[in-house]
Amino acid sequence: MRALKHGTMRAHVALALAALVLAGDALQPALAGGFDYKDALTKTIIFLEAQRSGKLPPNNRVKWRGDSGLEDGKLANVDLTGGYYDAGDNVKYGLPLAFTVTTLAWTALAFKPELQSAKELDHVHEAIRWGTDYLLKCASRKKKLWVQVGDPNLDHQCWVRPENMKAPRTLYEIDEKTPGTEIAAETAAAFAASSMVFRHDKKYSRALLNKAKLLFLFAKSHQGSYDGECPFYCSYSGYNDELLWAATWLYLATKRQVYADFITHEAISSSVAEFSWDLKFPGAQVLLSEFNMTSGGGAQNFKTQADNFVCAVLPDTAFHQVFITPGGMIHLRDGANTQYVTGTSFLFIVYSDLLLRTGQSVMCGNQAVKPERLREFARQQMDYLLGANPRGSSYVVGFGANSPTQPHHRGASTPVLPPGYDVNCGLSFGEWFAPDRPNPNELTGAIMGGPDKDDRFVDKRANSSYTEPCTYINSLAIGPLAALAARGAQLVATH
Question: Which residues form the signal peptide (predicted)?
Answer without folding.
Answer: 1-26
